[in-house]
DNA sequence: TAGGTGATGTCAGTGTCTGACATCGCTTAA
DNA sequence: TTAAGCGATGTCAGACACTGACATCACCTA
């Protein structure tokens, strides 16, 4: 028999999302999360840098998806199109977990602190996109503008996707946002 | 003689920026800030919701500048142009306090927590811009995309302005970012 | 079989932030 | 003129987030 139950990190994530949903982020202490996961408070902080991070551990993979997709785009693809393609890949990943995304987003939008952390994660994605674009030969200015714009459109699309009914498609929301931008920027 | 020295809030802001610059945000306690301002820790929290907020109290006025400028733009101005004009007004405000902005930004960029708060403030500005655009007749989608895009460009422009030498002009950086976008979105 | 490794536990802090109540110059109304 | 109330501040106690130092002990490896 193993000394510890496996997947401590995952148990903490599950316990946290459950408790946050049940009684809210503020009203949940780390001791309670740890207890539900059968661990101690100190162990929580060995897996997550702070209380918020327990909700954002899964957002790291998206960075890889985005940069890979940018790198994989044909060399002659214009920057904004490469960004659009990358966001499409990310959209496919998220589309699969719509109900989880909804549940998680409900907790996040109910709390200012969590919103802050989400914005940081998106800014990190923007930075990653910009770096990937530069290594494809885009200028610093082009890369920054294309990446920031892409993430801005993603934010708008993500919000309308989650606000819409269950049949909505994130990729479609994204395409619609890009189309709107191209009209506005004409 | 008045019972208290005047401008407690301003004294706290000054003391905080000084201490953050001297020894860093993390290494400064609220008790120290309060003491330098001749007040107590409890009073600090009556003026600012949390430790970070002492650096962001001055960013609220920008919201008014932006929404006023959008409202003041001629009715036939396209959304993205109205946003550009509004950001120009904000740029003029910031251009006057370049040295203060630099000092403050040095503290902010040195600390992840503070970066988070700054992103939230920018998101609030984006929300305000979108609301102002909608009340001018823009659709929800147009307003969201134009506002988010405008703030994204502002972020890029602000970064390059602060990175450049003392002769740089924020409005020019902004125009350059918009020009880059219009090229990319062609 | 001895010793090292690594995830976890225990404990004692520091600092942020909050609620409850006290203080006391100043303002307002009788 | 005075009593009552207001409002910015102080005092105090405490919950909770987060950290450093050290202990534990199943498991692996030489």
From TrEMBL, chains A, B:
Is Transcription among the key words of this record? yes
* HTH tetR-type domain residues: 6-66
Start-end of DNA-binding region: 29-48
What's the domain of life for this entry?
Answer: Bacteria
- Which Pfam families does the record match to this protein? TetR_C_14, TetR_N
Q: Which UniProt keywords apply?
A: DNA-binding, Transcription, Transcription regulation
The residue ranges crossing the membrane are none
InterPro entries given for it?
DNA-bd_HTH_TetR-type_CS, Homeodomain-like_sf, HTH-type_TetR-like_transc_reg, HTH_TetR, MftR_C
One GO MF term on file is: DNA-binding transcription factor activity
Please identify the protein, giving its name as recorded: TetR family transcriptional regulator
* Species of provenance: Herbidospora solisilvae
Taxonomic placement: Bacteria, Bacillati, Actinomycetota, Actinomycetes, Streptosporangiales
């Amino acid at each position: 028999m193993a000394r510890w139950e496996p997947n401590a990190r995952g148990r903490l994530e599950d316990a946290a999302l459950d408790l946050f949903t049940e009684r809210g982020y503020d009203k949940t202490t780390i001791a309670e999360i740890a207890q539900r996961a059968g661990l101690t408070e100190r162990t929580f902080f060995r897996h997550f840098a702070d209380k918020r991070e327990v909700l954002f551990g899964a957002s790291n993979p998206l960075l890889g998806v985005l940069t890979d997709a940018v790198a994989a785009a044909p060399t002659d693809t214009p920057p904004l199109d490469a960004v659009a393609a990358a966001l499409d890949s990310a959209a496919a990943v998220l589309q699969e977990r719509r109900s989880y995304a909804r549940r998680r987003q409900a907790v996040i939008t109910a709390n200012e602190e969590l919103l802050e952390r989400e914005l940081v994660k998106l800014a990190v994605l923007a930075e990653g996109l910009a770096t990937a674009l530069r290594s494809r030969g885009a200028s610093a200015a082009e890369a920054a503008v294309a990446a920031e714009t892409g993430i801005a459109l993603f934010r708008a699309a993500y919000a309308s996707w989650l606000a819409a009914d269950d049949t909505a498609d994130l990729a479609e929301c994204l395409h619609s946002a890009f189309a709107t931008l191209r009209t506005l920027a004409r």
